Amino acid sequence: MSLCILENIRKTFSMGDTNIEVLRGIDLRVDKGEFVAVMGTSGSGKTTLMNIIGCLDVPTSGRYVLAGREVSRLSDDELSVIRNEHIGFVFQNFYLLPYATVKENVLLPSLYIEKRKDNFEDKAEELLRTVGLGERLKFKPPQLSGGEQQRVAIARALINEPDLLLTDEPTGQLDSKTAADIMDLLARMHKTGRTILLITHDPNIAAYAERTVKIKDGVIIA
User: Fold this and answer.
1) What's the predicted TM-score (pTM) here?
2) Chain centroid to CA 146
């Protein structure tokens, strides 16, 4: 069953009197449980595509269905709800709060859930044990290595049990050994049934995915 369906997605940005079409008719499906890499060089359109898939932006034209709902024309507030309910983000720069503890960082997305039925405190601790940081609950990000900070970011992305884990250059700030450790962790997450969409320029990182989609000049070429 398809979790993400993109049909003829186009995105145009205006710069003064000039219109620049960054995405030029993208068709893409990601099924539940898949691990898909979107690979392209800088300027290929992969970041713009990621922003649309992650409901951080909307297409100029085309159709995007996420978890059975058409989201192409939703308002910013509606997109915010969709993001929190369906998508977990892992970014290159971690985006952790330096003054909050590891556990508090993981709990952040849960603060926006209106009906807090789950015991998020226990879930945060369980996720941190899963990513190998069970002994670091009270540490703060500056006390952690880059690889450990990314593990916190992965745990944070999973706290709301998202349908889609969207990872944007997750190893971009890491050395090769730590990058391999993070990708091994994501591969293990996938084996538990997680749907993962990986944005990368690196073929070695893309190789961890089951399927690689190559984008160039706003068009999928392979």
Assistant:
1) 0.92
2) 18
